[in-house]
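Quiz preparation item.
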């Protein structure tokens, strides 16, 4: 039976580290938790810095995103046309920002590779584009593209 923090977390902990000048503590599970996690955006930037082309097949749901990841591709592209079709709409700009962001967030949560999403026209003027970027960012999406 595990007691203390191990029991609370339901896992065995190698050690607990206190660190001055940083987060109050980190659990040692092979590495300190206070080390900054690499975000999907930074993973995608790293991919862009490499030579060659990045092939990111299109996904419209979590199953297709997982299949793309399992096939060994470095990134997933959330297709706007596929997302619209999965909701029963043609690709005529009928899907709202909230619906696109929600789908992109599900895909990003389902896979470990970066997800790049179709953000249509940014859903309005400059202020709306600012909000669009923030919404996709908050869901863990690595990048978006905006059409004019």
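Solution:
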């Amino acid at each position: 039976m595990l007691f203390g923090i191990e029991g609370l977390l339901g896992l065995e902990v190698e050690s607990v580290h206190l660190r001055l000048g940083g987060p109050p503590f980190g659990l040692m599970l092979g590495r300190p938790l206070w080390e900054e996690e690499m975000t999907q955006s930074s993973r995608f930037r790293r991919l862009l810095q490499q030579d060659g082309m990045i092939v990111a097949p299109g996904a419209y749901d979590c199953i297709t995103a997982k299949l793309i990841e399992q096939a060994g591709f470095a990134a997933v592209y959330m297709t706007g046309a596929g997302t619209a079709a999965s909701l029963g709409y043609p690709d005529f700009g009928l899907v709202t920002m909230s619906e696109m962001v929600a789908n992109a967030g599900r895909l990003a949560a389902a896979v470990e590779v970066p997800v790049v999403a179709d953000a249509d026209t940014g859903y309005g003027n400059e202020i709306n584009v600012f909000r669009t970027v923030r919404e996709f960012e908050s869901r863990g999406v690595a990048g978006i593209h905006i059409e004019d």
